[in-house]
Amino acid sequence: MDTLGLVWPPALGIKFDSKPPSLQEVIAVVNKARAKSAPEPNGVPYVLYKRCPNVLKKLHKLLQSAWKNTKTNKEWMTAEGVYIPKEQDSKGINQFRPILLLNVEGKIFFSNMASRLTKYLTENGYINTTVQNNGIPGVSGCLEYATMIWEAIQRAKSDKLNLDVVWLDLDQYHTR
């Protein structure tokens, strides 16, 4: 079979865990979340699930049902965009920080799915963390890239080489 020059990953080491999320997984996501996070579109904060174990158990049953039936609530996949001022008297778009607000229930559901998918992909060697490391728990991405850029700048200086570094300033994009 012609592989078209692609390198195929090794055979599976682990299978994807397709069981509905356990109560322990849901509790872990809720405990990891900041209690003072921004209010969500439906108004239900993480603190409700942190302080009311019986409500959390009911949510767990709902999450299990959604997982088993492969049907999620539309509100779990809908985000509300909000701009937060960076400074007290913010006027221009570059003085605001955009954030997306999602309902807590959807965050919990998809966080469990993302954790399992990340585990499946990394443990089976489908993600090369030397190349792709953004968003993978336990792997620092930004610091590594900043260090690589710094080392390239220092080498260019010491060896008197030309070096172009591009910094994308997305704030400037909004002001045009």
TrEMBL record:
Organism classification: Eukaryota, Metazoa, Spiralia, Lophotrochozoa, Mollusca
Annotated organism of origin: Plakobranchus ocellatus
GO terms for MF: RNA-directed DNA polymerase activity
Domain of life per record: Eukaryota
Keywords for the protein's UniProt record, in alphabetical order: Nucleotidyltransferase, RNA-directed DNA polymerase, Transferase
The name this protein goes by in its record: Reverse transcriptase
